[in-house]
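Section 5.1 Outputs to date
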Amino acid sequence: MTYEEFNEFCRALKSTTYVMQWGGSHVWKVGGKVFAIGGWAEDTPAFTFKVTEIAFELLRDQPGLSPPYLASRGMKWIQHYGAPGLADPELNDYLRPSHALVGHRLTKKKQKELGLGE
C-alpha cells in the first residue's frame, strides 16, 4: 500500500481528520484521537494502527509486523513495516476496527456530534 492509498482509505472512514506531524507522518484521527499513522519507516511505507488484545497477540510476532513504542493509554498498537506483513485488503481490515476502537472510547456526546455508532 502506498501512502496515497492509505490516506484515501482513511479519508473515507466516518468523521476522520488528517494532519501531517511527527517528522512527516500521515496521522489520522477520529474525535481528535489518533487511530492510524502512515510513516516512521526508513525505506518502505509503514502503517501503525490500534488493535484489540486478541489481534495484538496474533500479529505481534508476525514477519513484517511489530508493536511500536507508543504511549498507548491502555490500547495496543501494531506497525506494518515490511514484507510479508499484511496484504492491502488485510491492512484495511485492521484500519477499519482501529477507527471503531478509538471512536468507541470517545464520550457519548462526542460520538453523537460526529455521527458515530449510528
